[in-house]
Amino acid sequence: YKLRGNGYIFDNVGVRVYGLEYRRGIFNTLNLETSYSYQILIKEKHIIWFCLSAILINNSVDFASIDDLAYDPYFIFDSNYGSTNVNFSTGLAYLYKGLRLGITAPLLLNNILKDDDYVVYNTGPTISLHAGYIFRYKELSLYPMIYSYHFSDDNYWEGSFLCILRNTVWGGLSFGKNKSVGFYLGVAPINN
């Protein structure tokens, strides 16, 4: 489930409010985020974006949904564990015509779900690099991108291709390390 709102205060300042609930198996994450971004025009069509976000993150693990654990005499956890943390993210992007380059550091503070000293779940720290180019032809935009995520204990890459029609209808696909595949389809009824 996603809830998102974007707005601009001035031509070079933006704000965003974002909510996301993500469930995968026994893991559940609820994020509430607010972001501030600032755009600097370096030269004609050379733009640098800086963004800072504050995020309220609630992670939980639902052990009660695992039937086999109810009968395990060595299972020492209660049925649910959760933690709520405040975290921060930052990013920097360079834009020139259709070129997009960026680096982000999501979750600057470690986001750890712990039971006393036992770590149940750890999501950070992470660095993300991305590059892409928007090709425009009349009312059609094609946007190939590549992302590289560097976690504290692993690396992941993902490529994607978006097709945008009239800045209103978009679709695409993504593929990544470990043979992951995703499909996108969306409509923006209010053209910005």
Describe this structure in words.
By secondary structure, the chain is mainly β. Helix content is 0%, strand content 72%. The chain has strands at 2-10, 13-24, 27-43, 46-62, 80-96, 99-105, 112-115, 118-122, 126-133, 135-137, 140-151, 155-165, 169-176, 180-187. The strands form 2 sheets. Strands 1, 2, 3, 4, 5, 6, 9, 10, 11, 12, 13 and 14 form a 12-stranded antiparallel β-sheet that branches. Strand 2 (13-24) and strand 3 (27-43) form a beta hairpin. It is globular and about 55 Å long. The two termini are 23 Å apart. The mean pLDDT is 79.
Which features characterize this protein?
globular, 192 residues, 14 strands, twelve-stranded antiparallel beta sheet, mainly beta, 72% strand
Order of helices and strands: EEEEEEEEEEEEEE
* First and last CA, distance: 23 Å
Low-pLDDT regions = none
Task: Sketch the major β-sheet.
Answer: 12 strands, antiparallel
* Number of E-state strands: 14
Give Rg in angstroms: 20 Å
Q: Which descriptor suits the 3D outline?
A: globular
Write the layout of secondary structure elements.
Blueprint lengths: L1 E9 L2 E12 L2 E17 L2 E17 L17 E17 L2 E7 L6 E4 L2 E5 L3 E8 L1 E3 L2 E12 L3 E11 L3 E8 L3 E8 L5
Antiparallel strand pairs: 1-2, 2-3, 3-4, 4-5, 5-6, 6-9, 7-8, 9-11, 10-11, 11-12, 12-13, 13-14
